From TrEMBL:
GO terms for cellular component: plasma membrane. It is found in: Cell membrane. This is Extracellular calcium-sensing receptor-like. Residues 404-446 form the GPCR family 3 nine cysteines domain. Keywords: Cell membrane, G-protein coupled receptor, Glycoprotein, Membrane, Receptor, Signal, Transducer, Transmembrane, Transmembrane helix. It is a multi-pass membrane protein. PANTHER family: CALCIUM-SENSING RECEPTOR-RELATED (PTHR24061), NOVEL PHERMONE RECEPTOR-RELATED (PTHR24061:SF415). Pfam families: ANF_receptor (PF01094), NCD3G (PF07562). GO terms for molecular function: G protein-coupled receptor activity. Residues 2-371, 515-914 form the Receptor ligand binding region domain. It comes from the Eukaryota. It comes from Clarias magur. InterPro entries: ANF_lig-bd_rcpt (IPR001828), GPCR_3 (IPR000337), GPCR_3_9-Cys_dom (IPR011500), GPCR_3_9-Cys_sf (IPR038550), GPCR_3_Ca_sens_rcpt-rel (IPR000068), Peripla_BP_I (IPR028082).
Length: 958
């Protein structure tokens, strides 16, 4: 089945296979073993799903070292070597050619960082040093590539290991060409060492020539080519993949059972088409890499079944003895798993195959990028690794500059000289000083550090003394934990090799999220002053940075619920978590917290998937699910008679589930989707180009857009570039109030008239004064407030010179105040996410009030003091139960309650209009409450300042 390399698809496919379902009323036998998936990320998910059922899976391409952990992945096997072994192979090559000074460019994910760690482990005690490490992250690719190239230019290292995806390598190498950086020897990981994308790019011919690569081993499969060339749709009429291959290869639709697929729009095939003489990626068997791994996986499964079923083989000494196996009915997943562990057979090529803790023996091809007769790049097999034995035909290597590169920090000292390691640099970098008078040396006899006393020669380097987390804390009888993404982007890996690595704080400070955190502070202070709510119980808070990335958010949430704070001191564990902002992080954290019954209340996670209480029983939110904004857009389409609507959506749960909800809402109406175009960030340029082309060719003039605001910006700019006008956009909440888009002058014509669904805005009495009164002198431990002060006033707050010197800014005078400042912190004119955070704190407080059986002030008996039970009785399970029962009236007179963890749908409807100066602004023109949509149509500014453009077109299309 197709996995689409995306977990919703792969998960659905695997559940269908193990259940025997096939999407119809018919069923097939359940699969006893799964071969797949190709990507490590999908395998992690699927292995965890299949593990409780003891169902084994064999991957043919997942290389992450994490799978070597049998406790985590006891049912996982693979026919490809772990990344650990290719890192070791690169170290062996570095040793062989005397490269002691090596740079590294790695993907900032498990793939790159774990490979780098393996490389470091293997080089211990070898004299090989890392000159630099530069990381690349796809979401900031251009910036990271620029930094990596600058590091390379400034470094004396001439050999560079690269653990990066081929698409990112292309940009990296192209930038090197642009800056005329030459004379580098690249060591390529398997993910790009045989990449046709790179080999076919003529711009890279010079820079990449000479590359040495570790490649997934290639092997022949006797008879396989004949099998492929004899494939024909009439042999496999139900094979839709083969049908699509036929259509793409021959430009016709195969005739099956005297019928042709009219949906393809292609002419019928003659029936004489054949793959016999076709050369493409299907029929090319010259380098079977992933294909051979899959072939091995099938044989491994077969030999495990052979063992399990106690099959007998032909006996040459007794030909009368029948062969056979026990009934397959005895097969259980647990037994098959056990027998798979014991698999040991010889392949048709005479190689031994077996699993050792789910791993196969390391086997790699070593390839070299050389110029072909026509000048184009091609890879040539020049060696092989088997186990730990590296065999290379050095005479077959084509080197950059036609000679073996030299990459050392310092050449070996001559006779009569000794090494003196340069202070602050790795041991590979040293000076050569002559021996003292009367001394003689024909070897390096000593190593000392310049300027060091004897005691300093050997210094233990402890873990870096950095704050583990950034956040705010106030003690109380009950602690409310909160996750806020104060910083947006994860850091690059800073490996100085002078301290144990640690998870660094993120960067790209998000000013507006300070207001979210202060909503927690303000609400807790307000509740503590309220004699009717939690009387006698003092609420506290602990707010930590999540960085919107799971390693950070996971570490923060574990710290919150354990009471740890990165030091030897501890605080009270948080009983409830307010957060996360994103759906992806919320899914991860909800699953972690669910087993502990710790409730969490998100203020911005909108994914429809989180409504599944079986999956997320501890998840609550103060923002409506995306299903409601899709319904709101459907209502607007009905209201204005838009029956022909296009859709541009993010290619993830956010966009796809929203468009599905729109389809559900428009069933039985005259509204139709003219097209659906998806956008995925990793292929943004290509997807935007396709979406705009589809829009240009479509007669639909109303387009709903469910995409991140940064992607919407690229999309709208492309529309401007192509002069596509007269479109009415329906904006989802994620970009309907985006200051990034509204402040972009390029978009003021194309985006004018946009109608948007926005997170509802509400007032919080007293919050503005609280924000304006903030000052670092009142909260000396608040690192976030200090950063805000530095960003706002250009000075460093504090009473001593230490703080000022660390920031590099002059000290503040102490008279600075936020009272007259207008920014994302002090602006309370449109409290959207902030109000959701505020509501979440109150929901937690009312749940605690109920759980602790709190009594309220009695007007008829003023002597009876209000009180609550001891907070010691609080358990996560009880708090979860009482949170489900929360029902209170807000200060604005609105009823608030949870229904299966959801809140009633409330949205603002906004319209993008020109202000007197010509700039874009959004104007409130309506509201949705429940299913009631109220719009002031007379207040709407339409594109082209006329609604007739849309109405005339629509009615003429009906």
């Amino acid at each position: 089945m197709d996995s689409c390399s995306r977990y919703p698809h792969s998960l659905r496919a695997v559940m269908s296979m193990i259940s025997g379902g096939n999407g119809t009323c018919e069923t097939s036998r359940p699969a006893k073993l799964i071969i797949g998936d190709s990507a490590s990320t999908q395998c992690m998910i699927l292995s965890r799903v299949l593990s409780p059922m003891n169902l084994p899976m064999i991957s043919y391409l997942a290389t992450c070292m994490c799978f070597s952990n049998r406790r985590e992945y006891p049912n996982f096997f693979r026919t490809i070597s772990s990344d650990m072994f290719q890192a070791r192979t690169m170290v062996q090559m570095a040793k062989r050619f005397g490269w002691t000074w090596v740079g590294a460019v790695v993907e900032e994910n498990d793939y790159g960082l774990q490979a780098l760690q393996a490389f470091k482990e293997e080089t211990k005690g070898t004299g090989i040093c890392l000159a630099f490490v530069s990381t690349i992250f796809r979401e900031r690719l251009e910036k990271d590539v620029d930094r990596a190239v600058k590091l390379m230019q400034s470094s004396s290292a001439r050999v560079i290991i690269v653990f990066v995806w081929d698409k990112d390598v292309e940009m990296f190498l192209t930038e090197l060409v642009h800056r005329n950086v030459t004379g580098r020897q690249f060591l390529a990981s398997e993910v790009w060492s045989t990449s046709s994308l790179l080999l076919n790019n003529p711009d890279l011919t010079t820079i990449a020539q000479g590359t040495l690569g570790v490649a997934v081993r290639s092997a022949p499969i006797p008879g396989f080519e004949k099998h492929l060339r004899e494939l024909h749709p009439r042999q496999y009429p139900q094979d839709t993949i083969l049908r699509e291959l036929w259509e793409r290869t021959f430009g016709c639709s195969p005739v099956l059972n005297n019928m042709v697929d009219s949906q393809s729009g292609l002419p019928p095939c003659s029936g004489k088409e054949s793959l016999k003489d076709v050369q493409n990626s299907v029929t090319d068997v010259t380098n079977l890499r992933a294909t051979y791994n899959m072939y091995l996986a099938v044989y491994a499964a077969a030999y495990a079944l052979h063992s399990l079923l106690q099959c007998t083989t032909p006996n040459s000494s007794d030909p009368t003895m029948a062969t056979g196996c026990s009934s397959p009915d005895i097969i259980t997943a647990q037994q098959l798993l056990e027998h798979l562990t014991l698999v040991n057979f010889t392949t048709q090529l005479g190689e031994k195959f077996y699993f050792q803790d789910g791993e196969t023996p390391a086997v790699y091809d070593i390839v070299n990028w050389q110029r072909g007769p026509g000048g184009a790049l091609q890879y040539v097999l020049i060696g092989r690794l088997e186990g730990s034995n590296l065999i290379i035909n050095e005479s077959a290597i084509s080197w950059p500059g036609n000679m073996v590169p030299v990459s050392v920090c310092t050449a070996e000292c001559p006779q009569g000289a000794r090494k003196v390691i340069k202070k602050g640099l790795p041991v590979c970098c040293f000076d050569c000083l002559p021996c003292a008078e009367g001394e003689f040396s024909n070897v390096t006899v000593c190593e000392v550090v310049v300027g060091a006393t004897q005691e300093e020669n050997c210094v233990y380097l402890d873990r870096a003394q950095h704050l583990d987390t950034v956040g705010l804390f106030k003690d109380g009888d009950v602690i409310i934990g909160a996750l806020i993404n104060f910083y947006m982007l994860p850091p690059t890996l800073d490996l100085s090799f002078t301290e144990e690595p640690y998870l660094q704080p993120c960067y790209e400070f998000q000013e507006s999220t300070v207001q979210w955190a202060q909503a927690v502070v303000f609400a807790v202070d307000e509740i503590n002053r309220n004699p009717s709510l939690l009387p006698g119980v003092r609420l506290g808070y602990r707010i930590m940075d999540s960085c919107s990335r799971y390693p950070h958010s996971l570490r923060s949430v574990m710290s919150l619920i354990s009471g740890g704070n990165g030091t030897c001191e501890t605080t009270r564990p948080a009983k409830i978590i307010i957060g996360e902002a994103t759906s992806t992080q919320s899914m991860i954290l909800s699953r972690v917290l669910s087993s502990l019954h710790v409730p969490m209340i998100s203020y911005l996670a909108t994914c429809v998937c989180l409504s599944n209480k079986r999956e997320y029983p501890n998840f609550f939110r103060t923002i409506p699910s995306d299903i409601y904004q899709a319904r709101t857009m459907a209502q607007m389409a009905k209201r204005f008679g838009w029956t022909w609507v296009g859709a541009v959506v993010e290619d993830n749960d956010y966009g796809l589930q929203a468009v599905q909800a729109f389809r559900e809402e428009t069933k039985g109406t005259d509204i139709c989707l003219a097209f659906v175009s998806t956008i995925f960030r990793e292929r943004l340029s290509k997807d935007v180009d396709r979406a705009v082309t589809v829009m240009q060719s479509s007669s639909a003039r109303v387009i709903m857009v469910f995409a991140w605001y940064v992607d919407v910006e690229v999309f709208l700019i492309e529309l401007v570039r192509r002069n596509v006008t007269d479109r009415q956009f329906l904006a989802s909440e994620i970009w309907s109030t985006s200051s990034l888009l509204l402040s972009n002058p390029t978009l003021k014509t194309i985006a004018q008239g946009t109608l948007g669904v926005a997170v509802r805005s509400a007032l919080i009495p007293g919050l503005e004064k609280h924000l304006q009164d903030l000052h670092p002198s009142r909260y000396p431990q608040d690192m976030i407030l200090r950063v805000l002060w530095e960003k706002t006033f250009g000075c460093s707050p504090g009473q001593n010179n230490t703080i000022a010197s660390q920031s590099g800014l002059p000290p503040c005078s102490g008279k600075e105040t936020l009272e007259g400042v207008k920014n994302g912190v002090t602006d309370v004119s449109n409290l959207r996410a902030t109000y959701n955070v505020y509501l979440a704190v109150y929901a937690a407080a009312y749940a605690l009030h109920s759980l602790l059986h709190c009594t309220e002030p009695n007007s008829s008996d003023p002597t009876m003091a209000p009180n609550c039970s001891s907070p010691d009785i609080i358990t996560a399970q009880k708090l979860l139960e009482h949170l489900n029962l929360v029902n209170f009236t807000t200060q604005l007179g609105e009823k608030f309650y949870f229904q299966d963890g959801e809140t009633p749908a409330v949205y603002d409807i906004v319209n993008w209009q020109r202000d007197p100066g010509g700039a874009l602004q959004y104007v409130l023109i309506g509201r949705l409450e429940g299913s009631n949509l109220i719009i002031n149509e007379s207040a709407i500014s339409w594109p082209g300042n006329s609604r007739k453009v849309f109405m005339i077109h629509i009615y003429s299309s009906v």
